[in-house]
């Protein structure tokens, strides 16, 4: 669970989000959490076999400065 402005449980919309709205909201949440050093990892959101959002941020190994990747 990402805790960032517009990302917590209190930010649940009163309508079903479109795929574009969901992608935009996820991008903002991941970006904010990354800038605050609260998140380093991979996010993958899918509906069935359709990937709606994927992003890798931060480092997988800080000692060797290896970035997180989607592979």
Describe the structure.
The protein is of the alpha+beta class and 71 residues long. The protein is built from one helix and four strands; from the N terminus they run H-E-E-E-E. Strands 1-2 form a two-stranded antiparallel sheet. The longest helix has 17 residues. The model has no long low-confidence stretch (mean pLDDT 87).
Topology, pairings included?
Layout: H1 19-35, E1 41-47, E2 50-57, E3 59-61, E4 66-67
Antiparallel strand pairs: 1-2, 3-4
Proportion in helices = 10-25%
Q: Measured on Cα atoms, how large is the radius of gyration? A: 13 Å
Number of helices: 1
- Which structural class is indicated by helix and strand composition? alpha+beta
The neighbouring-strand order within the major sheet is 1-2
Categorize the overall geometry: flat
Strand content: 25-35%
β-strand number: 4
Series of H and E elements: HEEEE
- Unreliably modeled segments: none
For the sheet with most strands, the description reads: 2 strands, antiparallel
Distance between the termini: 22 Å
Can you give the mean pLDDT?
87
Keywords:
single chain, alpha+beta, two-stranded antiparallel sheet
Describe the structure concisely.
With 71 residues, this protein is an alpha+beta fold. The protein has one helix spanning 19-35, and strands at residues 41-47, 50-57, 59-61, 66-67.
């Amino acid at each position: 669970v990402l805790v960032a402005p517009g990302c917590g449980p209190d930010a649940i919309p009163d309508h079903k989000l479109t795929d574009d709205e969901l992608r935009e909201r996820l991008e903002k949440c991941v970006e904010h959490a990354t800038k605050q050093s609260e998140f380093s990892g991979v996010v993958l959101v899918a509906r069935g076999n359709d990937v709606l959002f994927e992003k890798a941020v931060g480092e997988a190994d800080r000692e060797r400065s290896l970035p997180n990747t989607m592979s």
